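Lab meeting minutes (informal)
Scribe: AK
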Amino acid sequence: MGGQVKRLLDNYIHHLEAERLASRYTVRNYTADLLGFFQFLGSTNIGSLDEIDKHALRNYLSHLMAQGYVKASIARKLSAIRSFYRYLLREGVLSTNPIEKGASPKQDKRLPAFLTQEEVKRLLEAPDLSTPQGQRDRALLELLYASGLRVSELVKLDLEDINLETREIRTRGKGSKERIALMGVPAANALQTYLNQGRRKLLNDRKHTSALLISQYGERINERRVQKLLEKYTSRAGIGKRVHPHVLRHTFATHLLDGGADLRVVQELLGHASLSTTQIYTHVTQRRAKEVYMSAHPMARGENNEPKD
């Protein structure tokens, strides 16, 4: 990678951090994706921006497919590259975008995974409420399911962000955009128990912290810890599938729509900028409605218990 490209890439990463307020995960992924792109170009003896065109991009995409990357990963890498080139255009480094019309890999539609109501019930009941850690974990799980928060939003919550009287949560999502999330009575009760009992014991006269969810050392818990806790309670609840924090967010949206919630209300609660992002959940509820119909309606299946055409 030439010196000019390295300098421009460093400037772009600083732009992501300082101006676009991108999360550290976005910055990390974009950095890795762009470095991979330019390293590939270097291996084909392309060393300057002037030599990069849609053919070079197409060769890179073919290389990724040959390496076995899934379409979603390729699309993410392509998004990072295009974002970088749009930045170069705005900064006047380039007058035209040579890769603007490069082909994108067609995405396979994957419906989001979610838990059934019975699985959610078993998961929420898994923590041991006789311990401060268990009280914290019950509150944590209740919040994820009841509010649809991203795990990155959950771990950033401070005490002042919670209003137990109105059952509202002030959170900052992608791009530090603030929104109000909601929680039901069970989540509020679990949180109240944790604040009155578990959190005080976990803090144990240590220096005060504003963090809502804290570890046994009195420090703010991180996303990796939340994932580990979820794995622990998924196993304890006997749920035979991999459950990560975003599955509870998917479950939140799916159960709302199953219950008759308006799509735009769900969009607002999830903090989605575009309604099209939320619409994927309608496919989930439609699929589930078909499954219920096929199993329950007496005329849905043929004489040999086969689905009728």
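Next up, CB showed the second protein from the same session:
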Amino acid sequence: MTGFIATRLLTMLPVLWGVSIVVFLLIHLIPGDALQLFLGTQVALTSAQMEELRRLFGLNKPLPLQYIDWIGQIARGDFGVSLRTSRPVLTDILARFPVSVELTFLALIVALAIALPVGVFSALRRGTASDAAVRVGGLIGLSIPNFWLATMLLLFLPGRVLPIASIGIYVRFFSHPIANLTVMVLPAFSLGVVLAAVIMRFVRSSLLEVLGQDYVRTARAKGLRERWVINRHALRNALIPVITVIGFQAGYLLGGTVVIEDVFALPGMGRLALNAIAQRDYPVVQGVVLIIALLFVLSNIVVDVLYAYVDPRVRYG
């Protein structure tokens, strides 16, 4: 297992290198002058002064040299400084990292709390009216953009149906858990409901496939209770492909929090990236995307490790 994890960690380096190239090129191809946006329209500098600023920020070099300088800093653990605030990029990311991770974690809890029981319920009642209703609900959930759902929740729930929800005032969990959860409940629900539709469909299809296996029929023939057959024999094996989906979706959630954090004014990495894109703050955008890519790759490694614990047939040399 240790050798497998070490190999996977090594293979993620080329992936991150490719991501770094793509994000570096894309952010620099966005129209607009970063320094001009930084100075605004009220500040007029001579061409010599502008050139000196470009030299200070390293923007006077050709793009390949700028990339080499940046990736060299990354290799040393230095993500550079923000063009807007002159603060270390890594410091700003780490300060906002807990917000995005908490939102992702809570969204996964919401999704699993909905998807697992509903998916099992639908599989056990295959072909009935309730099964059809669940499948239609799942299709609707897949069709709803999470930002639209977030907007609808903001318009209709706070102050009317859900007066405890607080918007735009973030409180850290360990400072005040109750206040924190009232802030995070709507963002987590916005992300979790859409994700629940995806997971629920996989739970249903996977459980239906397992219920048709010989060992499940044998367990029933031996007189085991249906609940024991489902929980002990069927559901555990059915969760293997579901874990794959959850692992991938956890990575996507970190990227999906970008819009949700902006809608609910949460001080997470996503909102930091959006503001940096609007301001052409190249180091911040590059740093945030690289961290999200790293977390996405690590989530896939965690999924592979979980396989060995969920399925005893899976063994890594």
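CB comment: DSSP finds twelve helices and no strands in the chain.
No objections, moving on.
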